[in-house]
Write a structure and sequence with these properties.
Elements: E1 2-5, H1 12-21, E2 26-29, E3 40-43, H2 49-58, H3 61-70, E4 75-78, H4 80-83, E5 88-89, E6 104-108, E7 119-127, E8 142-148, E9 150-154, E10 160-165, E11 169-176, E12 179-182, H5 190-203
Parallel strand pairs: 1-2, 1-3, 3-4, 4-12, 5-6
Antiparallel strand pairs: 6-9, 7-8, 7-10, 10-11, 11-12
């Protein structure tokens, strides 16, 4: 069973539909009661970093997410769910602390050179590690769908498995042990995105 954390993120239903299409057993959770029984967990996200963290804390899912990660079971963060794994964000002068799973901050794309912020649309992901399980069977340079103004800047480059160019070269996917996270939306990335989610579902079996 895959836990899908529901704290009001706008893309939750599209993630749920994608996982169900892959024949995954999905349990949408608004409280931590059943989380410990899940085989894997997905933290989706659309919107602001602070809203994500505060909603998770209010629903007692923040500490529960940390405990789940420490259990060693597969965990996937998507978009703001990816950003929440870091220490802090500069979005709206955020005062909320992230999950602090990874060292580093979430920063904004620069307003320069006519760059449109947020980045909305398809962009390539350059794979930096060939052995990341969720990218199994996915070609280097594949296109995924992005919608974001901010992105994490990991302090440890060794966790970066995917990089993307958009005004700057940024970490669009990370991996360490049982923790996977992407800045792009696999649930909106058609065939290649479904392949990534299929690989993640396979880790839970």
């Amino acid at each position: 069973m895959i836990a899908l954390l529901d704290y009001g993120a706008g893309n939750l239903r599209s993630v749920e539909k994608a996982l169900i299409k892959l024949n995954a057993d999905v349990d949408v959770m608004t409280t931590p009661d059943r989380l410990a029984h899940a085989d894997a967990c997905v933290l989706p996200g659309v919107g602001a970093f602070d809203d994500c963290i505060q909603s998770l804390e209010k629903q007692e899912l923040l500490a529960a997410s940390k405990e789940f990660i420490q259990s060693g079971k597969p965990f996937l963060g998507i978009c703001v769910g990816y950003q929440s794994l870091f220490e802090r964000s500069e979005e709206f002068n955020s005062c909320a602390a992230g999950l602090n799973v990874f060292d580093g901050s979430v920063i904004r794309f620069p307003d320069e050179d006519g760059l449109k912020v947020p980045q909305i649309g398809w962009n390539q992901v350059e794979l930096k590690q060939n052995d990341c399980p969720i990218f199994n069977g996915i070609d280097d340079g594949s296109y995924f769908y992005f919608v974001h103004s901010y992105h994490p800047e990991p302090a440890d480059d060794s966790i970066v498995v995917g990089r993307t160019e958009y005004g700057r070269n940024f970490a669009s996917a990370v991996w360490r042990d049982n923790i996977y996270a992407t800045q792009f939306h696999p649930e909106k990335s058609q065939t290649v995105g479904l392949k990534l989610l299929e690989n993640f579902v396979g880790l839970a079996s």
